[in-house]
Amino acid sequence: MVTCEELNTESDDEPSIEEQLLTLMTSIVATTDALNELLKRSDIVQAVVFDVPEYAFMLESEPVTNIDVSTLKEFDAISRACLSFSKLKCTVGKSRKAVYRSPGIIVVKNNHDEIDQLTTAINEFKVMFQDCVAKSGSTAKARHDQVHTLFEMINTLQVYRRINVISSLDDPIAQVSFSWTTRPSLVKTDKKSVINKIENHKKSPPDHVPSKDWVACLESEIADVKKISKDVPLRFRRDTKVFPIVNLKSIDKQISQLQAGLPIIILQNTAIKVRELPTYDANLIRAKRSDKCTSNEPLIERIGLYKSSNT
Length: 311
Description:
- This protein has helices spanning 4-8, 17-40, 74-86, 112-134, 140-150, 156-160, 191-201, 211-226; strands at 44-51, 66-67, 70-73, 104-108, 165-167, 173-181, 185-189, 234-238, 243-250, 255-259, 263-267, 273-275, 280-281, 305-307.
- By secondary structure, the protein is of the alpha+beta class.
- The chain is globular.
- Strand 9 (243-250) and strand 10 (255-259) form a beta hairpin.
- It has a domain at 1-172 and 256-271: Replication Terminator Protein (Tus), Chain A, domain 1 (3-Layer(bba) Sandwich).
- Helices cover 35% and strands 22% of the residues.
- The N and C termini lie far apart (54 Å).
- It contains eight helices and 14 strands.
- Helix 2 (17-40) runs antiparallel to helix 3 (74-86), helix 2 (17-40) runs antiparallel to helix 4 (112-134) and helix 7 (191-201) runs antiparallel to helix 8 (211-226).
- The longest helix is centred in the first third of the chain and has 24 residues, at 17-40.
């Protein structure tokens, strides 16, 4: 297994992007295997992981109204956690766009230094892999083709996401509460940035659209952007899929919130009160925050450009 320090060492004979990606993937897999073996032989105070069904193939964009959740504990929970840490590829017959979700907690009493070292290394390898992918091609399609040629059925989002570890011996976690949310991802932008974004899209026409027609479509979008008043606040909005979150409260009442796609490893000696992840019901999901709102109608639907409603 190659260490992060060795990968960061400069060399006169720098390996190709393909070689770097292969080396990094080997390091991610080997280090994650080592973490899983360590967890299985550690003193586990508590293990709770929630079984969340995967999105069906090609149906990830369909509206979700209900998600049934079941609870795994102790040995079954540890096994599922280890599986989720190692799962970097899509499941046959399931979505190739949505990530595998396995929220939960693993509370570990010993081997804290070793667990911290391994998870730090894994997360560093993941960042390096993501940076390497970004350099693997000049367009999104080129990067996609490069990575998926090297790693069949890979889900890059599952590769990129970090394994969260909380060391809480000084102020132990007393309670965790799991829930669902659907808030959109919003990014502030302006007319110049939007036009630059559209100009860049000229380099990557879809396979089914003639280049001339594609450029004409983008020129029309640019003309529409130029008509927008400079005083109009603009946002790129991307509606996220339903995803689980967890609120953590320490004994000293310190509260933090994390996305809960993977089990969280908590290094402490005491068990935690767990509010379990409920079955998702679209009718009960909490409202979006008012400061995250945009107009209902997009200015340019293709790129998710909206006018902010907070004017």
